[in-house]
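Input/output pair, single chain:
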Amino acid sequence: MVVDWERVAEMTGKSFLFILEFFAKISAILISGVVLAAQGSFGAKLGAGYSSLSVSLRKLFQAPSEISEAVASISQYINMPADAQSIEAAHNVLVWLNSSVLYMDAVANNLSSQFFVTVFAALIAFLSVYMVSVILRFYRQKGEGSWLNKLEKNLGQKIFETPAEKMKRLKAEKKKVAAMQSAQKEEKPAQPVKGGESAPRSYKAAQSDNEFLQDYIRLAQNGGG
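Output:
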């Protein structure tokens, strides 16, 4: 079995770019979320958003375990009698809910007191990071778009294309194919002669050389006369 290492390297590179693209999109959402709740001026909000990226990503990865712990605490509080353990479980749930409430309260205060500054800062933070994912996606797909984009485009042409537009598109495609075939014919190299020899000369040229050689031999036999 022959391994196509070039294909393997290409797929590995595309997978790596896809992972970077995914994290760039997630980071854009997290940064804009922090900016919405950050206090201070426009620059302070952006600084808080960018500086909190590593902490936000770490909390994002910890979110599944925190949610499962909160669900377990609620189940423990409901199913167990009122004792120290159930009270502690209820306290953990309230702490988890309190952090969410505090975040929503900070966002509401910013939107009420600094609406344009908060929205503009969040928009700038989101777009500045999201554009990185757009560039990575463009490079990964070589500017051709994903298979979903191509499927939507072809489906849209079949559904919404009028007969006149379809006829025009078919003519353009035929003209493009004809131009490509003509270019290929013009670029087709001349067939070399077998054995590396040059192409034979015409019969008249060969006959003229033969007559010249016979005249030279005749003159030599007559003593040059």
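The chain has eight helices and no strands. The first helix runs from residue 5 to 37.
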